[in-house]
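dumping this here so i dont lose it
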């Protein structure tokens, strides 16, 4: 479905996907991949079951820090921060493809960015493991938490 959206956008705006500059590639990826995923998580967590399919199967739900339904704003913050390492990796991968496809030397900042995006994801995981409440960075910033569903 997301591939279809990418192809549709490239056809509507007449992009040649074989030779897309990094900014255009990033925008296409953001609109057709990252944004739909963020919206899926946001809408699922705002819905009746307050969680994605996986959370429902595990009997979990997302709530605000006061254990009430999380607001759309909280869920937007939660998911934007959650997917930040993923989006940063996309950003730097598009630059890496650009430099290698044009036979230019890849700048150190591109490789540093790729490594940093992975380190950020590792920091997220370590934070959950070593935080006394097992809360992630994105839960703390969005003032949300995952709780066991009591219903």
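and the seq i came up w/
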């Amino acid at each position: 479905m997301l591939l279809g959206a990418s192809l549709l956008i490239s056809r509507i705006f007449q992009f040649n996907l074989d030779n897309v500059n990094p900014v255009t590639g990033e925008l296409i990826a953001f609109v057709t991949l990252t944004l739909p995923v963020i919206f899926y998580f946001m809408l699922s967590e705002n819905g009746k079951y307050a969680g994605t399919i996986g959370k429902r199967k595990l009997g979990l739900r997302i709530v605000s820090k006061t254990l009430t339904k999380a607001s759309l704003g909280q869920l937007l913050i939660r998911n934007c921060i959650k997917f930040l390492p993923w989006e940063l990796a996309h950003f730097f991968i598009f630059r890496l493809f650009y430099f290698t496809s044009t036979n230019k030397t890849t700048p150190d900042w591109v490789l540093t960015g790729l490594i940093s995006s992975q380190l950020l994801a590792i920091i997220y995981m370590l934070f959950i493991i070593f935080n006394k409440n097992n809360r992630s960075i994105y839960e703390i910033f969005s003032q949300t938490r995952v709780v066991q569903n009591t219903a």
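The CA atoms of residues 35 and 42 lie 10 Å apart.
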